Amino acid sequence: MLLLQRRGRVTARGLAEELEVSERTVLRDLEALSGAGVPVVAYRGRNGGFELMDGFDTDLSGPETWRRDDRRPGRPRRAAVRISPEGRRVAAVLGRLQPLRVRRAVAPDAAGWVEATFRLGSLEAATADLLSLGDEVEVLEPPVLRERVGDVARRIAARHAAVTP
């Protein structure tokens, strides 16, 4: 991740040579990064390669700043949301936020909204899934996903604001 942050677009072969591993290992590692929520973008063709999505900040200046994740190894990362009954129906029909696990320890509010969790594969996919549910869902955790959904929603709202001739 640090190499992608510092160098921008890099080929799998270039990363493999730099890290002294096989290209297949690099591809597996890039897939693992993406699955962990790091927005790695792949470009095909003559000038192709891999890079981090524009605007993604890792807050890494070197290997010494990397912190171990507090989650147990092998345990999938989950996001927490508040979701309305209609949001749950739409999510099920569209196949979004699946599997959606309702937190039974937290009672529904007066309008039927419940707290639930879903597996967080990548920020991009989760953002698209959440936005497809409109205002029937609210992100509680992680904060980075909540901020990202809010930023994208604001950009969409600004683009669709009424324009006076």
Which keywords apply here?
2 domains; Arc Repressor Mutant, subunit A; alpha+beta; 16% strand; two-stranded antiparallel ribbon; Alpha-Beta Plaits; 165 residues; 6 helices
Description of the molecule:
There is one protein chain. The protein is α+β, with helices and mostly antiparallel strands. It has 2 domains: 2-55, Arc Repressor Mutant, subunit A (Orthogonal Bundle), CATH 1.10.10; 78-159, Alpha-Beta Plaits (2-Layer Sandwich). It is 38% helix and 16% strand. It has 6 helices and 6 strands; from the N terminus they run αααβββαββαβα. It has helices at 2-7, 12-19, 23-35, 85-94, 123-131, 143-159; strands spanning 40-43, 49-52, 78-83, 101-102, 114-119, 137-141. The strands form 2 sheets. It has a 4-stranded antiparallel beta sheet with strand order 4-5-3-6. Strands 1-2 form a two-stranded antiparallel sheet. A hairpin with a 5-residue loop joins β1 and β2. α2 (12-19) crosses α3 (23-35) and α5 (123-131) crosses α6 (143-159). It is globular and about 60 Å long. The termini are far apart.
Strand proportion? 15-25%
Radius of gyration, rounded? Answer: 19 Å
- Please report the number of helical segments: 6
For the sheet with most strands, the description reads: 4 strands, antiparallel
Write the layout of secondary structure elements.
Layout: H1 2-7, H2 12-19, H3 23-35, E1 40-43, E2 49-52, E3 78-83, H4 85-94, E4 101-102, E5 114-119, H5 123-131, E6 137-141, H6 143-159
Antiparallel strand pairs: 1-2, 3-5, 3-6, 4-5
Helix pairs in contact: 2-3, 5-6
In short:
With 165 residues, the protein is α+β, with helices and mostly antiparallel strands.
